């Protein structure tokens, strides 16, 4: 027994030395985390700590996101050029801009103690979740210190109960993309103001053919938002739960569900939901192959309308605002979303990071030619920049795009509760039963309201 | 006649031989020899034990510990809050968990079905066809093809309106064939069928390796006695493959229980939550909703269920597995 | 008379064999479909990948563009390919060796606690890897294994499945041979190397094939434990063809078809080992 345990010890020692040998071959990245607290000051040369005295002058800000380094680094360099003494290091989390995978990687890095000052969040749900975990530093003092009038600077208001945990970078609004060639063929105008009833009429008129080659008026993607379209066009209170109050047993939700039902089952003008989920249909191929003439989508698709390498455009795309629920309702509004940038609460360079993020969300966005939440952004310049980048600018209908961009109104940013994911799953599940013919509208609304209330209560 | 090639015979002889040998050995050297054996035992199993300790056992125990806490892994160790069995109470209070557990149990069916198919094919391929090598590759193909491709081909074949399967069903007079993946009552069955399709190849090549281990002279002796194919299968092939079958059953059930990659690619748990499994829920809670403690409690329950199923089989093996 | 009977028997036997082969080929087609679809999709322009009814033979060929895009595009596919070969080969070798040793220990050596230890090892297989990711990630950072190939190799190399599989096969290896070697004065090491391993060649080859394939196709482990792009494996590389603009199936399939080739090579070489392995019957006779 004794000898056996000696053997074990020897084996463990052997394995440990093997591991450390393997590890030392490449641990530049890992060491940054291991150093802990003051790692930022050394910026690579971690010799023996005697450069700590001189290290104070150079500030290193470490920023992480799912964006490609190639697209971010030129902006960081522009900032460094304007601000001597500051270095911004960029951590590229994934190499294909997949924000879901990127956030997963980011969470693990933060958990393992990697030094990160600034992080980017891909949407309001992720923002709310991480703010709720106290991961992000409150920015109110920094904003006051700068004397910034937040409301005059940004379109979207990120405050949660009066506290700002992030600044808005890009702005996402939603609208309808229309295949203008099909519109012209059907003798339809590009709408500048319309209701869901008119949307459904358009969809019906744009539906043609039968069988596998049938083309539809519209296509609803599988994301939860396509189940509450009647909320997305509301100027305020456009969440499933607003300030802890459920918004399911409401005319907006009924409109949302009914319009889906009408399009799929009565008019047969929308791609059937069964096809969408069983075939994992994605909105790009469906739209660009002409299988559906209209899709409801967001700002990131503006440039795609001019074609991409994989999805070349072969027809003109026009833009229209989200339809409103009834004639006379406020029109032109869209739910706002976007990317947000925040400072990790454990960062030791909060002021420097804040200064950088202020620049990044304003001038930086301009340099990057992003559609941003900065009120001073130049819409015309943005449109011409988009057109300069795409392979087929002639397929972007500039008149309707300009009209839409200048007249669209961002709804107040609705910061969902931290348990938004649970709400959406529960709601989607009931809505699916409805569209798949398993329950009627009233049962759906009643069940959804009951299920969601349970979740709200559990999270009180 | 058949008894003359009783497979147990050789085994029994083996065991007797060992016992005799051991008795002699023990008398000769006694404790010193036992100690040497013990050392050799640890030496041979040592590397695996150390590896398992570091890479699985320690993380697993840590994860079990987290199941008693209310914690999100992104927020740092200092925010861990002990919560007793609160997570488990919440877990058992939800319908979703029981739902997923039932789905898990249904999907387990794919293991015996796949194994039966694999065993039949293994016998046919090794003895009754030309170009057995080619068939091994063909039936293994779904396992090495990209999971996306496998899912897509399935989607195409089972397209609710235009797919060949439903066209055939409609031609046979079934007016409203199931919508398969888009149908809450058939989605789980679809996943099950697909699992058989993908994993059968693994059981197949393991069975083929097992067949290779059966002494040829047993079959020769049986043929001289004029045994039919079925009798040969029943009295030689099947009994001698029982260790392989046991392995495939245990690992198949465990693997089936804990994996969710296919479900993630194919259905994401839907439609109407009809294809959720515990591992999928655990992943969503842990990495999407960032509730580490809650996800860990799911891992513990999952582990307990698998352990129970495996222990029952382990105890039951004496009744049917021939070593 | 007898001869004629034997003759018809032989014909009947052949006929049956041909029929069985044909029948099996038909069934095999269903199993080949995913691969055929992969091939077909990899030849098409992106927009035609999902047209209905399915076109098995592309209308428009985009073969050269797709494969050029994969092999010489913005993604360093050649490097990822090479990384994957390294990781998969080393993982397989390590895993087969460690598993075979452990399986030998668990079946052919009698020591106290043997069964309990084995059950503990098996129990660690009963938890989804995702459940241990967080602790493992922290351990990896702490040990310096994060962002190294060594980390991937060790994780795959100490997989429990191989130990269990080989244990089941080793149980079937006649103890007579081992015992006779013991009489000749050979220790466990000799018996393991000279007798057990050669006898278990089919099982070792089978496990080797599986481990290689699983390592090659593993996405989750490299995704979590690598961040340096020069260390990326092929699955991470393939994933680059799915970006936030959606998945580009034509490219993904061209990459998948390219990635399947080493697997086929390993499978065919491995199966040759299985066939050529000495049957125990031969030894016993």
Can you describe this structure?
With 460 residues, chain A is α/β, with parallel strands linked by helices. Chain A has helices at 2-24, 28-34, 39-42, 52-55, 69-82, 99-111, 124-132, 140-146, 150-153, 180-185, 196-205, 229-232, 251-266, 273-278, 283-288, 301-304, 350-368, 379-389, 398-407, 420-435, 441-458; strands at residues 59-65, 86-92, 118-121, 159-160, 163-164, 167-168, 174-179, 216-219, 241-242, 245-246, 292-298, 317-321, 333-334, 340-343, 409-410. Helices cover 46% and strands 13% of the residues of chain A. In chain A, the strands form 5 sheets. Chain A has a 5-stranded mixed beta sheet. In chain A, helix 5 packs across helix 17 (350-368) and helix 20 (420-435) runs antiparallel to helix 21. Chain A starts with a helix and ends with a helix. By secondary structure, chain B is mostly helical. Among the domains of chain B are: 10-66; 108-276, MetI-like (MetI-like fold, Orthogonal Bundle), CATH 1.10.3720.10. Chain B contains 14 helices and 2 strands; from the N terminus they run ααββαααααααααααα. Chain B has a two-stranded antiparallel sheet. Chain B starts with 7 loop residues before the first helix and ends with a helix. The model of chain B is unreliable at 1-13 (pLDDT under 50). By secondary structure, chain C is mainly α. Helices cover 73% and strands 1% of the residues of chain C. Chain C is built from 14 helices and 2 strands; from the N terminus they run H-H-H-H-H-H-H-H-H-H-H-H-E-E-H-H. Chain C has helices at residues 2-42, 63-72, 77-108, 114-123, 133-143, 149-157, 160-171, 175-183, 188-199, 201-217, 220-225, 234-239, 249-276, 280-284; strands at residues 242-243, 246-247. Chain C has a two-stranded antiparallel sheet. Chain C is flat and about 70 Å long. Chain A binds chain B through residues 1, 3-4, 7-8, 11-12, 15, 104, 107-108, 110-111, 129-130, 133-135, 211-212, 272-275, 277-280, 346, 419, 421-422, 425, 428-429, 432-433, 436, 438, 458, and chain B through 35, 38-39, 42-43, 46-47, 50-51, 54, 72-76, 79, 90, 151-152, 155, 158-162, 179-184, 267, 270-273, 287-290.
């Amino acid at each position: 027994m004794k000898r056996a345990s000696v053997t074990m010890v020897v084996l463990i020692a052997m394995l440990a030395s093997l591991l450390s040998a393997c590890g030392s071959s490449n641990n530049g990245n890992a060491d940054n985390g291991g150093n802990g607290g003051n790692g930022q000051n050394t910026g690579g040369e971690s010799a023996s700590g005697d450069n700590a005295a001189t290290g104070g002058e150079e500030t290193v800000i470490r920023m992480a996101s799912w964006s490609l380094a190639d697209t971010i680094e030129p902006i960081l360099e522009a900032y460094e050029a304007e601000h001597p003494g500051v270095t911004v290091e960029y951590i590229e989390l994934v190499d294909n801009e997949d924000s879901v995978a990127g956030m997963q990687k980011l969470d693990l890095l933060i958990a393992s103690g990697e030094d990160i000052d600034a992080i980017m969040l891909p949407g309001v749900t992720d923002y709310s979740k991480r703010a709720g975990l106290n991961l992000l530093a409150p920015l109110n003092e920094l904003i006051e210190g700068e004397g910034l009038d937040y409301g005059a600077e940004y379109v979207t208001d990120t405050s949660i109960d009066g506290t700002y945990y992030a600044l808005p970078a890009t702005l996402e609004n939603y609208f309808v993309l229309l295949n203008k060639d099909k519109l012209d063929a059907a003798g339809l105008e590009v709408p500048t103001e319309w209701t869901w009833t008119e949307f459904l009429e358009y969809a019906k008129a744009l539906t043609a053919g039968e069988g596998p080659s049938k083309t539809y008026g519209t296509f609803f993607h599988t994301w939860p938002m396509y189940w509450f379209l009647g909320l997305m066009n509301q100027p305020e209170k456009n969440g499933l739960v607003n300030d802890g109050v459920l918004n399911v047993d409401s005319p907006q939700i009924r409109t949302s569900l009914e319009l889906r039902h009408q399009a799929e089952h009565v008019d047969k003008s929308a791609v059937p939901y069964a096809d969408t989920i069983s075939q994992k249909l994605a909105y790009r191929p469906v739209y660009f192959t002409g299988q559906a003439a209209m899709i409801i989508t967001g700002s990131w698709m503006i440039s795609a309308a001019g074609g991409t390498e994989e999805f070349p455009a072969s027809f003109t795309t026009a833009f229209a605002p989200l339809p409103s629920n009834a004639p006379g309702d406020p029109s032109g509004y869209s739910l706002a979303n976007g990317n947000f940038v925040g400072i990790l609460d454990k960062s030791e360079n909060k002021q420097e990071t804040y200064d950088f993020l202020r620049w990044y969300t304003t001038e930086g966005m301009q340099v990057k030619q992003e559609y941003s939440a900065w009120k001073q952004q130049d819409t015309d310049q943005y449109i011409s920049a988009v057109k300069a980048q795409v392979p087929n600018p002639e397929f972007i209908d500039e008149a309707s795009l300009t009209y839409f961009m200048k007249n669209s109104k961002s709804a107040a940013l609705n910061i969902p509760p931290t348990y938004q994911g649970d709400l959406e799953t529960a709601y989607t599940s009931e809505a699916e039963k409805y569209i798949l013919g398993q329950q009627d509208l009233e049962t759906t609304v009643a069940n959804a309201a009951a299920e969601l209330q349970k979740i709200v209560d559990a999270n009180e | 006649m058949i008894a003359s090639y009783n497979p147990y015979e050789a085994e029994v002889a083996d065991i007797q031989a060992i016992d005799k040998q051991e008795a002699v050995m023990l008398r000769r050297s006694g404790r010193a020899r036992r100690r040497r054996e013990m050392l050799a035992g640890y030496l041979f199993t040592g590397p695996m034990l150390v590896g398992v300790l570091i890479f699985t056992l320690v993380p697993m125990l840590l994860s079990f510990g987290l199941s008693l806490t209310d914690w999100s892994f992104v927020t740092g160790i200092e925010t861990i809050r002990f919560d007793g069995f609160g997570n488990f109470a919440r877990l058992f209070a939800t319908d979703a968990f029981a739902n997923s557990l039932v789905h898990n149990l249904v999907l387990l069916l794919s293991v015996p079905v796949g194994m039966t198919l694999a065993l039949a094919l293994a016998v046919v391929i090794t003895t009754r066809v030309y170009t057995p090598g080619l068939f091994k590759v063909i039936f293994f193909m779904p396992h090495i093809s990209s999971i996306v491709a496998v899912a897509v081909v399935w989607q195409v074949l089972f397209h609710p309106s235009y797919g060949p399967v439903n066209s055939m069903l409609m031609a046979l007079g079934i007016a409203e064939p199931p919508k398969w993946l888009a149908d809450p009552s058939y989605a789980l069955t679809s996943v099950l069928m697909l699992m058989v399709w993908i994993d059968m190849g693994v059981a197949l090549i393991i069975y083929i390796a097992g067949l290779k281990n059966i002494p040829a002279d047993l079959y020769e002796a049986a043929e001289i006695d004029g045994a039919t194919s079925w009798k040969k299968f029943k009295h030689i092939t099947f009994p001698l493959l029982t260790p392989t079958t046991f392995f495939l059953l245990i690992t198949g059930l465990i693997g089936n229980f804990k994996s969710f990659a296919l479900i993630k690619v194919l259905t994401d748990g839907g439609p109407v939550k009809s294809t959720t499994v515990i591992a999928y829920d655990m992943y969503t809670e842990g990495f999407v909703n960032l509730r580490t403690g809650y996800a860990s409690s799911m891992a513990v329950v999952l582990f307990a269920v698998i352990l129970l199923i495996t222990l029952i089989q382990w105890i039951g093996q004496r009744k049917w597995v021939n070593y | 008379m007898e001869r004629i009977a034997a003759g018809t028997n032989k014909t009947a036997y052949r006929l049956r064999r041909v029929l069985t082969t044909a029948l099996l080929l038909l069934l095999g087609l269903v199993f080949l479909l995913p691969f055929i679809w992969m091939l077909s999709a990899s030849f098409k322009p992106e927009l035609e990948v999902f047209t209905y009814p399915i076109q098995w033979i592309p209308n428009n060929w985009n073969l050269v563009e797709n494969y050029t895009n994969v092999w010489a595009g913005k993604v360093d596919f050649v490097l990822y390919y090479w990384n994957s070969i390294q990781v998969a080969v080393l993982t397989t070798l390590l895993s087969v060796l460690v598993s075979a040793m452990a399986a030998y220990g668990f079946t052919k050596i009698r020591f106290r606690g043997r069964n309990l230890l084995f059950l503990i090892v098996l129990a660690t297989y009963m938890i989804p890897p995702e459940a241990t990711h967080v602790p493992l990630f922290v351990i990896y950072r702490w040990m310096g294994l994060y962002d190294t190939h060594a980390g991937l190799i060790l994780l795959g190399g100490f997989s429990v499945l191989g130990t269990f599989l080989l244990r089941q096969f080793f149980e079937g290896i006649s103890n007579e041979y081992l015992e006779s070697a013991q009489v000749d004065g050979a220790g466990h090491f000799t018996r393991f190397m000279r007798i057990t391993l050669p006898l278990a060649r089919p099982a070792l080859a089978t496990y080797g094939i599986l481990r290689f394939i699983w390592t090659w196709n593993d996405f989750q482990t490299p995704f979590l434990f690598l961040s340096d792009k020069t260390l990326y494996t092929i699955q991470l590389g393939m994933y680059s063809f799915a970006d936030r603009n959606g998945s580009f199936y034509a490219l993904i399939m061209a990459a998948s078809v390219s990635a399947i080739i080493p697997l086929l090579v390993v499978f065919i070489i491995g199966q040759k080992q299985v066939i050529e392995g000495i049957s125990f019957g031969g030894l016993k006779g």
